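Record 1 of the preview.
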Amino acid sequence: MKKVFAEFLGTAFLVAIVVGSGIMAINLSQDVGVQLLINTISTVFGLYVLITILAPISGAHFNPVVTMVDLIQGKSSTVQFIQYSLAQVLGAITGAALANAMFSYPLLEASTKIRSGGNLYIGEIVATAGLILVINLLVNQKNLVVVPAAVAAWIGSAYFFTSSTSFANPAVTIGRTFSDSFAGIAPECAPKFIAAQVLGALIGLGLTKVLTREK
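->
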C-alpha cells in the first residue's frame, strides 16, 4: 500500500503543480506565451523532484499508460495496474481540488476549455509515444539515474513543440477536467485525448522494441 499511496501522492502533487501554475500564470500575465512558459517551467521542476523522491518507492509512474506498458511487458501484475491506475486518477482529482482551493476557485468545477481536433490528438500521440520511448530506452540501458531529468525535459519540450501542449497522461487529463483554468480541459474533450494517449503509449512501446531488438 506504500507504493499505491506514493502513486496517489505523486499524481496529486503533479496535477496541483500543473493546475496551480496555470492559475498563477493567468494572474501574472495576459500574454499566452508567458503563461505557457510559467506553466512549463513549474511542471518541469516539479516533475523532476517528484520522480526523484518517489521512484525508489513506487517507480514514480503517476500515469496509467506508463503502468499499462509495464503490465504489457510483464513487469507488473493486473492487480498492481488496477491499484496504481485508481490511485493515479484519484490523486489527479485531489490535486486539481487542492490547486483550486489554493487560489480560491470552487473546489471542483467542470472546465469549459475546449481542446479538440485531429491536430491535437496527433500531438498527444507524439507526446505520449516519446514519453514511453524515453522511459523504456533508459530502463533498457540501465541508465535510471537520468530518468527524472530526461522525463521532465521531454515533457517540458513537448509543452511547446506539440499542438496539444503535451498532457500525455490519462490521469492528469481527468484531473484537469475539474479546473476551469488555463490548464483545464472540457470533460467532453477528455475521452479522445485519453484514446490518443493510449495509442501513443503503444506506439512508444513498439518503437522501443524495434530499437532494443537483438540482431
